[in-house]
Write a structure and sequence with these properties.
By secondary structure, the protein is mainly α. The chain is built from twelve helices and no strands. The longest helix is centred in the middle third of the chain and has 15 residues.
Length: 214
């Protein structure tokens, strides 16, 4: 299965997208360079995504730095070896702690391999992750995009992507998750590159504000 691993993969996806859908040409002109932003697959990558949910970039980074004091890269085994009181002292919320503990236990018991999800079809990998407490579709899809390198993932529930679609195509309002996924369907098998493009477009229209959730 092809993965998005390098800048060359982004370039290949962009070339196919622009040829297939000329509406994306002006979007690309505004967006500028489309970043790769890859991290290795594994517990550490998923933990970082969970840590950053619904927080500012600065707040998430501060918590993550404190979490890294217990191991970097952070593995399931290292996570389980640390008492919950200490994890809470890093600033990790009770809900996020519960989610990460469930992931770590699943890994330790052999029911899940975050790293191996990179080798699974996207739907199957998403189902495995969302079966765990507190891991919703957005979290699973962001992990599969930026840690597993799946080329055809589109997080339809992402607010910045919805806003970017509305602005790029002159929609009357921000599309719903379902509508956003429908709009992105023609960009398969490169929806992961299209998502990066739309995040870059969103950021460029806001003077470089980071939109891509990594």
């Amino acid at each position: 299965m092809r993965r998005i691993e390098t800048e060359a993969d982004i370039a290949a996806g962009m070339a196919d997208l622009l040829a297939a859908d000329p509406r994306l040409i002006p979007v690309a002109e505004v967006a500028g360079p489309v970043p790769l932003r890859r991290r290795p697959p594994g517990f550490d990558g998923l933990a970082r995504i969970v840590c950053g949910q619904q927080l500012s970039v600065a707040s998430a980074a501060a918590i993550w730095r404190r979490m890294e004091a217990y191991g970097s890269p952070l593995t399931a085994e290292r996570f389980l070896a640390v008492d919950d009181v200490l994890w809470r002292a890093t600033g990790l919320s009770a809900g996020k702690l519960k989610s990460l503990r469930a992931v770590a236990i699943a890994e330790a018991e052999g029911r899940l391999s975050c790293a191996a999800l990179a080798d699974h079809p996207a739907d199957e990998a998403t189902a495995q992750l969302t079966a765990l407490p507190g891991i919703g579709p957005w979290t699973a899809e962001i992990y599969l995009l930026f840690c597993a390198g799946h080329p055809d993932i589109w997080p339809g529930g992402d607010l910045a992507l919805q806003v970017a679609l509305a602005e790029a195509f002159g929609l009357s309002g921000r599309p719903t998750d379902k509508v956003a996924r429908g709009l992105a369907a023609p960009w398969s098998p490169w929806r992961g590159v299209a998502a990066r493009l739309m995040w870059a477009y969103y950021g460029a229209r806001r003077a470089g504000r980071q939109a891509q959730p990594t």
